[in-house]
C-alpha cells in the first residue's frame, strides 16, 4: 500500500489562542483507514494480483470516476446477458458492449485500457473481441457474440485466480468453490500473467 499523506485543514475554535492540538491536526499524517474498513466497501476496492502462485492484495482509492466506471461495466454485462436471453437481440447486445467498454475505460483509465488491448500477448483476443464487437454493431449478433466470447476468454484469462478467490469468499457458494476439483480447475487454467 502506498503511503499517502494528507494535510488536514487548520480548524481553530478561536482565532486568538491556537492550541497544541491544532498544530498536530494541521501536520501531515499518513492516511490510513480504520481496521474495519480495510476489507469493506468504504472508499477502498480490493483487487487481487496474482504473482507466481501468491495472491497479493492491492488497494486503490475509489473516486467517483471509478464508481461510475464500475456501474457502467455492470450495466454492460447485464445488458449483454439480457441480449443473449432475448435470442441475441441486436440492440441490447450493442448497448451492453458499448457500456462495458466505456465502463472499463472509466475504471482503469483510457491509457491503461489501450495498453491492455495493445499488448502483443493480447493481439489474438483483441482482434477477435473487436471483430465480434463490430459484427454485433453491424447486425450479426450470433457470430459476433461467439467471436467476442472467445476474445473475452483469451483477454481476461489471467483473472481466473482472482475470480477464484472472490468466489471462495461468497458465504454460501464459497463452499462449492473451495472443493478440491474446483480449485484444481482454477489452478490449471489460472495463468501466471496479470492482464492489466
| Shape label | globular
Structural class: mainly alpha
Question: What gyration radius follows from the Cα positions, in whole Å?
Answer: 22 Å
* Low-pLDDT runs: 11-18, 20-59
Describe the largest sheet: 2 strands, antiparallel
The strand line-up of the biggest sheet is: 1-2
Strand content: 5-15%
What level of helicity do the residues show? 55-70%
Q: State the total count of DSSP E strands.
A: 4
Mean pLDDT over the residues: 75
Total count of helical runs of at least 4 residues? 9
Q: What is the straight-line distance between the termini?
A: 18 Å
Q: Tell me the series of helices and strands, N- to C-terminal.
A: EHEEEHHHHHHHH
Question: What labels describe this entry?
Answer:
single chain, 196 residues, mainly alpha, two-stranded antiparallel sheet, two-stranded antiparallel ribbon, 4 strands, 57% helix
How is this structure best described in words?
This is Vesicle transport protein. It is found in: Golgi apparatus membrane. Belongs to the GOT1 family. By secondary structure, the protein is mostly helical. The chain has a domain at 8-37. The protein is built from nine helices and four strands. It has helices at 20-26, 64-85, 90-108, 110-118, 123-138, 141-155, 160-168, 174-177, 180-189; strands spanning 5-7, 28-30, 44-51, 54-61. The strands form two sheets. It has a two-stranded antiparallel ribbon with strand order 1-2. A hairpin with a 2-residue loop joins strand 3 and strand 4. Helix 5 packs antiparallel against helix 6. It is globular and about 45 Å long. It starts with a strand and ends in a 7-residue tail after the last helix. The relative contact order is 0.09. The model is unreliable at 11-18 and 20-59 (pLDDT under 50).
Amino acid at each position: 500500500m502506498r503511503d499517502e499523506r494528507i494535510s488536514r485543514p487548520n480548524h481553530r475554535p478561536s482565532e486568538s489562542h491556537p492550541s497544541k492540538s491544532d498544530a498536530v491536526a494541521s501536520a501531515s499524517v499518513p492516511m490510513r483507514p480504520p481496521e474495519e474498513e480495510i476489507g469493506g466497501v468504504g472508499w477502498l476496492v480490493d483487487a487481487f494480483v496474482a504473482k507466481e502462485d501468491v495472491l497479493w492484495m492491492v488497494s486503490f482509492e475509489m473516486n467517483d470516476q471509478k464508481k461510475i466506471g464500475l456501474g457502467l461495466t455492470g450495466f454492460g454485462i447485464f445488458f449483454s446477458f439480457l441480449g443473449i436471453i432475448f435470442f441475441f437481440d441486436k440492440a441490447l447486445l450493442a448497448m451492453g458492449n458499448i457500456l462495458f467498454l466505456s465502463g472499463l475505460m472509466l475504471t482503469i483509465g483510457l491509457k491503461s485500457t489501450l495498453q491492455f488491448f495493445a499488448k502483443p500477448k493480447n493481439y489474438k483476443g483483441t482482434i477477435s473481441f473487436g471483430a465480434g464487437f463490430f459484427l454485433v454493431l453491424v447486425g450479426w449478433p450470433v457470430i459476433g457474440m461467439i467471436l467476442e466470447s472467445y476474445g473475452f476468454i483469451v483477454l481476461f484469462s489471467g483473472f481466473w485466480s482472482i475470480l477464484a478467490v472472490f468466489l471462495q469468499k461468497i458465504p454460501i457458494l464459497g463452499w462449492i468453490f473451495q472443493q478440491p476439483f474446483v480449485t484444481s480447475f482454477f489452478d490449471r487454467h489460472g495463468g501466471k500473467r496479470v492482464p492489466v
